[in-house]
TrEMBL record:
Gene3D superfamilies: Cytidine Deaminase, domain 2 (3.40.140.10), Dihydrofolate Reductase, subunit A (3.40.430.10). This is Riboflavin biosynthesis protein RibD. It catalyses: 5-amino-6-(5-phospho-D-ribitylamino)uracil + NADP(+) = 5-amino-6-(5-phospho-D-ribosylamino)uracil + NADPH + H(+); 2,5-diamino-6-hydroxy-4-(5-phosphoribosylamino)-pyrimidine + H2O + H(+) = 5-amino-6-(5-phospho-D-ribosylamino)uracil + NH4(+). In the N-terminal section; belongs to the cytidine and deoxycytidylate deaminase family. It comes from Blastococcus xanthinilyticus. InterPro entries: APOBEC/CMP_deaminase_Zn-bd, CMP_dCMP_dom, Cytidine_deaminase-like, DHFR-like_dom_sf, Eubact_RibD, RibDG_C, Riboflavin_Biosynth_HTPR.
Amino acid sequence: MTVTDGELRGMARARELGTGALGTTSPNPAVGAVVLAADGTIAGEGATQPPGGPHAEVEALARAGERARGGTAVVTLEPCAHTGRTGPCADALLAAGITRVVVAVPEPTELAGGGAARLRAAGVDVVVGVEREAAERGALAGWLTGVRAQRPYVIWKVAATLDGRVAAADGSSRWVTGPEARAEVHRLRAGCDAVVVGSGTALTDDPQLTVRDAAGRNAARQPLRVVVDRRDRLPATARVLDDAAPTVVSRAGTPAELLAELFARDVRRILLEGGPTLAAAFLRAGLVDEAVVHLAPKLLGAGPSLVGDLGISGIGSALSLSVADLTPLGGDVQIRLHPTRHTGGGARTGGPATDGGS
Ligand SMILES: NC(=O)c1ccc[n+]([C@@H]2O[C@H](COP(=O)([O-])OP(=O)(O)OC[C@H]3O[C@@H](n4cnc5c(N)ncnc54)[C@H](OP(=O)(O)O)[C@@H]3O)[C@@H](O)[C@H]2O)c1
């Protein structure tokens, strides 16, 4: 597979564009696309628009205009060949005179597949699989989990002290971490379709669970707020029930049931914000795809641990995670991890449930 440095830079930019669209495209994939003019310079950029709106390639082509002719499209997901709520992207690329297409991830759904073949049949040079893993682990992760496992992608986020406490012995938990880490939580929320907590967190902390800016103003677009409250303990006065964002109070008996409920509502990315009991239930069921841990350089010595009982008695059975990256956040540290061994559960397989495609 031969790709130019300019195409690799285009692919990195396409991934960034896809990431920027997270939280707005579900149940469709958050795709990024860059059109390079024949001279290799960037002619247009685009990302998937909210459902019913143009796909990433069409956005990028519109920006490129005539400069797309004889150029290259660099896109994180194979251009679709089907007519859903919008027309086939493969046809749009042909109509614009694109002569080469560089793709990261092949389209996994039969419904939207066939784009690369259609382009090749029309004489376009198509390369598929360029930096595929980075694209799959990035903005496409939620959508791909939906296609492959018929459930949303779960990001478990927790803020803890150096000794792994999420609250003090008296239950107080505000400001475990500093302002930079808290701002990052709002960015994480904005990139998800739903934010989930258990009734314990809702009762103890009374969080609002909205996306807010540094001044505390609510963002225009808000993810769905979800409280799992199987014994109807949430009071009507809870802040999560205010009108700042839509809220679901679920009585789902298990994490798998909850994920099925949310998947049916087109939720593809979930931020699981606690607490330790609900997080343990997800981990035991093998339903955490990514963990984002904010560690504060503080010690409490007592108080609830960041995760509840996982049913593990020996070190040999520890749930292992691999570190994806470490980022300083003000005085705190963010660790992003992926579980490498689950204590149970597993992915189910099934067909596509979206209008697919890029
Ligand atoms: N620092 C942080 O990042 C952070 C984040 C969140 C919470 N916290 C702290 O954590 C503490 C609350 O801990 P917690 O463990 O009580 O909170 P939690 O995990 O949010 O809530 C636990 C409750 O969730 C309900 N639940 C719903 N589905 C469940 C399932 N499948 N499995 C198990 N439970 C399920 C159960 O109540 P029902 O049976 O009534 O449904 C359970 O009692 C507070 O001190 C809070 O400040 C800290």
